[in-house]
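Input/output pair, single chain:
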Amino acid sequence: MKIDFWKYEGTGNDFIIIDNRKGELKEKNAALWKRLCNRRFGIGADGLMLLQKPVAGKKKYDFEMYYVNADGKPTSMCGNGGRCIAHFAKSLGIVKNRARFLAIDGLHEAIIKGNTVKLKMNDVKKIDTAAGSYVLNTGSPHYITFVDDVMNTEVYARGKAIRNSNPYRKHGINVNFIQAAGDKSPVLRTYERGVEDETLSCGTGTVAAALTLAWLNKTGAKNYCLIKTMGGKLKVWYTKKAGGFTNVWLEGPATQVFKGKIKI
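Output:
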């Protein structure tokens, strides 16, 4: 059987997207998803998404996003993936300039203008401290730690050690290293669970980093934060409220790289 697929990237965070509105592919197929994401034996990607048709009887939305990491396993929300699949839905004619879709963490809205997509994220009610670092959930669990020289930080080794430490070993956690210096845009590098390596960008990690900076009053009076990842810049908008955050949006580029067919 041959299937069509589309390759997308959002600030270097790359994805395979498949239009599965006819339901020809079953969600629980970890071995296949892992093979397709493999950079040597498959297409290669940080994760894979199925665009599914809405489920009848549920609250009105345009489509459903089913996401797995490169290990083929279903996981939590992917911010850059959400932006890419919204752009993909527009390319298929499912939506115009606005989308409303269901992901593992609930409903999301997206605004698509050319190759720029702004995605509404869930509210964040609290940020916890952990050994001088910070832990919060922005649709996916994130560990935020500040460093003086992020470009010379051993992201893979340190990230892997934290991700596999207690109490995170069982379910994993995404580990983010951020350098914030003066008026320059903060620089972020992320070790992602499920990929088990550093990725060029992480959407929910960027949101987590921006909200942590705002929580520590390191973003000034602005209601947004521009963060530089290894794959490009992302902007996070937010409203700070009662120790948490609401009206959180992730904005950045989403690019369709190519389309192909593969035998499965």
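The chain has a mean pLDDT of 96. DSSP finds four helices and 17 strands in the chain.
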